[in-house]
């Protein structure tokens, strides 16, 4: 089949190939591009070299076709607006596949199909998909080019929007090809928009082939193949093979008044507060004393054991693909500042009077003359709180793509070759009840168990119902590139080879009162919980031992300057035995679903928890 296409298009190819041969002699790269071009049949092939001139030309081209709209250069310099198709606004977990040779390797939590069958299905969808279009070839690095952590990828795409987003989210350029040299060790990614047909949308990973294929989408995590597809699904697979970890975690540095910085990584499910925590601004009383928070990453961490026996983390990304709604100068001023230049906004409100953007929760001044995320005229009178999803101006999963280096609190270690040493790992989710504000695990094995039983209410970051509690182990349910049971085993194994392992905690910013309001103020005030966590890591504060782990004494959470009583803190810290017993039943069902790869240690921990609950 492939040979046939290569033969048929041989002549056209000679010209196409001239372009790609200028950039590299790597025969593995060239032959793969040739093969993919033979199937997708682009009119042109263009290498992305990482230069500003090329990026500028592509922005201009995208504006001329309406794919992008240039925003007010005075207010939002070098910023653009993009709207996706209305049926293409989030990750599609139901159409995301891990195609390992056997179903057992992918496990019960992932969708699986036989690789040969899937390739055949995909090649049909890709056939001629780039006719009349340009194939862009993006050489990119996850991690600092040339560092021990770095891994390289090449994404082929027919979308300028994807190219411009990848230029922000990853390190793109000819230096990646130089670093790759003539090695076959890179991740292949093929993306074609095709017809944006929901019924034929596929996001597929072939971990054994280092290959990712995406078709019929133009949205974020489905098409920016360096992000969830590579840096989590493929990387988690590689991490297990090579003895490191790829996790859905932010990384932050907490600087105390003495100038010492301790690093924390935290795994929360999509749209559960990673970006917000990573860019936290300490409450006034802490700021005055000299506390600061530095952002290393807001979504993905790659972690390796260092020579000193600690766990070291890098953020493999180069930018933030952050949730827009709710971002404002109180909740996350650093994120807002980051988006003031060089940013691509997706599916937000277009304010026509100023040629700027707006979203729910930005401020109380919605634009009077505006276009909503669907492309229709919109003003606040259309907004109905009872029917947010259908009447909001910005899609609840609308996003900004912004450069990490534009973030006012970006860590000086952002480009570090070695990463940062992690003192604490924090898990967390959206739980209206069960989970207390914070608790600490008894040890690494128990901590891995705490990660495995994480649960959270679903959000708009993925297609499907919102607000349903589901188990989301380590916030990785949609992102583990192999069997979930084996992934837990990898966590347990890692604990044995990190002599100086981080302590493991669990937080919940989302407990609600009887009226459904959040009890904990959250955002900047989460710093108060981080301080307790660091104090625990340094043995500076004791705690109360409960059935689920160590919980703070209420008076050890600093509430100075907060309009909240000690009793409320007590309430936030209670471990309700009855709801935990219910949870245990649900965990048992979930473990059964994960199946017979669940490590025995996890069942031991579950039995121990059940016994402690009485
Ligand atoms: P992804 O990019 O999808 O991985 O999301 P994320 O985990 O980075 O979540 P993000 O920080 O963008 O927050 C998502 C939503 O949660 C936003 O609407 C925030 O306003 C809200 N949120 C974040 N932190 C808090 C908090 O401490 N308390 C409350 N109540 N809401 C929060
Ligand atoms: C998430 O859903 O966790 C995101 C956004 O960070 S996406 O890139 O679409 O995966
Ligand atoms: Mn995420």
List its traits.
about 625 residues; alpha+beta; 8-stranded mixed sheet; 20 helices; about 20% strand; globular; binds guanosine-5'-triphosphate; binds sulfopyruvate; binds manganese (II) ion
Oligomer: single chain
Distance between the termini: 63 Å
Radius of gyration: 24 Å
The number of E-state strands comes to: 30
What ranges have pLDDT less than 50 throughout 5 or more consecutive residues? none
The structure class reads alpha+beta
How many H/I helices? 20
Question: Percent helix among the residues?
Answer: 25-40%
Beta-strand content estimate: 15-25%
Mean pLDDT: 96
Outline the biggest β-sheet: 9 strands, mixed
Q: Looking at the structure, what is the overall shape?
A: globular
Topology:
Elements: H1 2-8, H2 10-21, H3 27-40, E1 44-47, H4 52-65, E2 69-70, E3 80-82, E4 96-98, H5 103-106, H6 115-126, E5 134-142, E6 151-157, H7 160-169, E7 171-172, H8 174-180, E8 187-192, E9 202-206, E10 211-215, H9 220-223, H10 226-242, E11 245-247, E12 249-255, E13 261-267, H11 274-278, H12 284-289, E14 292-297, E15 301-305, E16 311-314, E17 319-323, H13 333-338, E18 344-346, E19 349-351, E20 356-358, E21 370-371, E22 377-378, H14 388-391, E23 399-403, E24 420-428, E25 438-440, H15 444-452, E26 455-457, E27 469-471, H16 484-496, E28 503-507, H17 527-537, E29 544-545, E30 550-551, H18 566-573, H19 577-594, H20 600-613
Parallel strand pairs: 1-5, 3-18, 4-9, 6-8, 8-10, 13-24, 24-28
Antiparallel strand pairs: 2-3, 5-6, 5-7, 9-10, 11-15, 12-13, 12-14, 15-16, 16-24, 17-23, 18-23, 19-20, 19-21, 21-22, 25-28, 26-27, 29-30
Helix pairs in contact: 2-3, 4-7, 15-16, 15-20, 19-20
The structure holds guanosine-5'-triphosphate, sulfopyruvate and manganese (II) ion.
